[in-house]
Amino acid sequence: MVPLQDIFTGATEEAKDALRFYEENYSSIGQWIPQPRGKVILTSSKPGVCRFCSLAHPNVSFRKEAHAIPECLGNTSLFTKYECDACNKFFGDGIETNLGSWSKAQRALSGVRGKRGVPKLKEESSSRWRFEHDPTGIKITQDETDPIAVVNEVTKEITLTVHRDPYTPVAVLKAFAKMAISLLPEEELPSFHAAIAWIRNSDHQIGLVKTSFFPVLYTFVPGNNPLVDSVILLRRRRDTLPVPYVTVVLTYGNEVFQTVLPSLERDAALSGQKVRFPFFPTPYELARDLEPVAPIQRERLDLTGRSLLARETIQTVLRYELSKRDEAAGNGTAA
Ligand SMILES: [Zn+2]
Fold first, then answer.
1. Distance from Cα 85 to the centre of ligand 1, integer Å
2. pTM of the model
3. How confident is the model at residue 38 (pLDDT cuts 50, 70, 90)?
4. CA 302–ligand 1 middle distance (angstroms)
5. 220 and 296 Cβ atoms separated by less than 8 Å
6. Ion ligand 1 — residues with CB < 5 Å
């Protein structure tokens, strides 16, 4: 087989290095791409048994469609048949609500469609400003006396400062883990009994593994729909390799999140070790002819916090162009 780094000859050195790492250590379990039209329902060899609580019909029901990837991330097509209604409601009201609250501001900026369309952000106390997408672009409405959007007409940039809805960081990690467990082939489930118990525990003070073992690698690619929404699951090639057993790469909107699906059963040997975990490359780093509209941003996020965060703010910079007509009228339009 031709090594991947030889196929992507236009890749940056860092991307080639990452490709080498993932090729040596991991093989793909699968890749899932939600389709706007059409429906895929993943099934189990044991119909009527819930993957999460292990209860079976008729003790639990399976009337609702269970989203394999949370609906708030824009998934309207990929469902599972092995999540009971009780677990579906429990996750929906709990960790997936945390994921929705945590990601809402950025989703509004990126235009990812969730259950109720693209989220509209508004200042709850005063309704002095609103931020929404419509077919013509982004619309920001605000009271000039209390700017949440600051426009710099020289650099043609709008800096938006928005509050996140309250969320508990580790609940967001659990929502990532729950999504990965929903997509796992069933023969992998014995390696994740502890992880399933962890995501089913509504007490977020109860930890699973050392928090240092939970990096979340975050990539932001600027532009209008620069990436294809997908989830990729990768499994360690051999148990002797010093890397986590399963990693998950989630792409939606302008963002890529990469983390570990923790396996107490498989990853015990890694405890206390420094584990290498490079960023999975985006198409922009693999092909020379793909150019993002602005530099790709990367950081390591810490989502291991166990307490509710009530008033966190995030800041985003948008660039805009003036169309001829707007320029004449003296109005700017966010691009
Ligand atoms: Zn269940």
1. 7
2. 0.85
3. confident
4. 29
5. yes
6. 50, 52-53, 84, 87
